[in-house]
């Protein structure tokens, strides 16, 4: 058996096992050393291939796709700095628990550390940011090696998906020649009808005595609080609302909790909590008896102040598998169990609560929403989010950028009966790769809007090529405040000598030219009516559509603070009456 046949059968068995194990999408960046994998992936009839030129964009595209599908996606690149460009997305995938199969190709061992071109140290390149690393053996095609390569493919898919999902990294050394021979008989190897490592995974469940112990801790108190941070399980909404309603507890629902949108009852959901908790006096008056948190820590900084200031309040953090996501540093009890089942068990126990506690939160939430969501004609960053929420189609996706974008969604995206999935890269909270991530989610074919600022848009503008290549339908609402708008809300704003150069960083870029370069449609709007019309038209358009809203950073800061001051004043008056 010659080298090419060994290479072909080895690689084909690996790719075929990925498919059998449940992986269906691969994002490939061009290169020579990755030829065996790239061509074999493209040859497999059950694998969808996406070719993204820039490795950083490719990895974020895969991340957005995997986040939306909640299934592992593979990424393939050549050797050298190509693999290094994956790093930001791998860090994000690790912290946001997104399954990726990272497949880097490499020089063979004899060409490493000898000055050969495009050869860097790729072993454990991503350090602790992957769940598993394996250096693959050089290709061989005897039965032992074909079993070996299938076992590693199956393990990669399982490991990326199991428990807290995340990225895995396999490094493939390949010798030349690199082009496979797809004329070989029985190219994909022997099929057994199931994956090499079939897995049966059950959900975690508290023992009966543990559930009783938890209930005994909670039942003496009437002012409990449920908090739901970023979460991707759409099944949680109904169970969590049933639990909260049965116990008379308010739910502080982060925009990424998947609780604000959908058909479930929303009487107990408090989406205005960020505005409510901005005043320290109010935070002290709203001290709870206990807090139960599901998902990661919410986006809201006032909530973080709230939980820090009440460090003596018993806190229970529910995790599906494992983890210690508690940045406030408070003493907490961790519950590792299936969240849906836990909610159902607690709802059945019918705890007695303080009825005035929920009623007070509902009244305050109504006040906050009244001031935040009133129908203003002036187009601001907040009203832009409100209009976006009103116009996004049923069953659509909203991918949200970081900095001001996610905070404005937290503040101005109200509860809705529409089914909308809200996603963001809140693992490491960076502005890199957001265009690509949004496009990866939009590749699902569902109506998708991407909300982000001008710096984020510019930072990943080359990611727009994917929209042109694959004619992906996406609406991008670009909030252009000519720089880093979020810094206007931070202490750096007070240092005028350095603020604009180091933090404001205005670019003065004509974004319409960037959009035109990728054959997209562009609109600049100045009123809420124009924005509504442009958004509705964009969802009928096939391909890339960018709608730009230009704002002033200082005016935006003052407008936000004006809203918060009015809300705080009215809430303080209510709480003191």
Describe the structure.
This protein is α/β, with parallel strands linked by helices and 577 residues long. It folds into three domains: 171 residues, Rossmann fold (3-Layer(aba) Sandwich), CATH 3.40.50; 149 residues, TPP-binding domain (Rossmann fold), CATH 3.40.50.1220; 192 residues, 3-Layer(aba) Sandwich (Rossmann fold), CATH 3.40.50.970. Helices cover 41% and strands 15% of the residues. It contains 22 helices and 18 strands. The strands form three sheets. It has a six-stranded parallel beta sheet, with helices on both faces. Strands 9-8-7-10-11-12 form a six-stranded parallel beta sheet. Helix 21 links the parallel strand 17 and strand 18. It is globular and about 85 Å long. The model has no long low-confidence stretch (mean pLDDT 93).
Helix percentage: 40-55%
Question: What's the CATH H-level superfamily name of the largest domain?
Answer: Thiamin diphosphate (ThDP)-binding fold, Pyr/PP domains
> Please, how many domains?
3
Mean pLDDT over the full residue set: 93
Identify the overall geometry: globular
Through-space gap between termini? 88 Å
By helix and strand content, what is the structural category? alpha/beta
Spatially, the strands of the biggest sheet line up as: 2-1-3-4-6-5
Instruction: Please work out how many helical segments DSSP would assign.
Output: 22
| Beta-strand content bin | 15-25%
